[in-house]
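Need residues for this backbone.
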């Protein structure tokens, strides 16, 4: 995936990636290229156990549609500076995981889902507007 980004190296653009490519390792690799990323993630071994929410868990059952939880992780960049990435767990019909170092994980915006109004984290709204 990083080979496709070489022409944009150093441009500080945001790369939007689907769930098959997004990972913590990709965030760090793109940071070396001075690029940012927002992408969905599969609930596989790419997401640390402590951040996963099972459909059978109490967290899932108690979370209302539009509800979300977030975790922010600090890491050292390639240049030795501190940086942050956020993992957002948002409940639409199922849990949707979004990893980003391009936007704040806290704000929410309104969305329209099947003739109902709800809320979603801004990072997910930005992803949806760019990826369709």
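Answer:
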């Amino acid at each position: 995936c990083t080979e496709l980004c070489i022409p944009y190296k150093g441009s500080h653009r945001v790369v939007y990636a689907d769930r098959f490519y997004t990972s913590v390792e990709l965030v760090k690799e793109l940071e070396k290229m001075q690029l940012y990323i927002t992408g969905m993630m599969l609930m596989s071994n790419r997401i640390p156990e402590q951040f996963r929410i099972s459909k059978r868990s109490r967290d899932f059952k108690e979370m209302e549609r539009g509800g979300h939880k977030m975790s922010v992780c600090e890491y050292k960049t390639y240049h030795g500076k501190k940086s942050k990435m956020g993992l957002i767990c948002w409940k639409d019909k199922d849990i949707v995981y979004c990893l980003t170092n391009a936007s704040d994980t806290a704000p929410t915006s309104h969305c329209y889902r099947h003739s109902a109004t709800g809320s979603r984290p801004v990072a997910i709204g930005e992803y949806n507007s760019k990826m369709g």
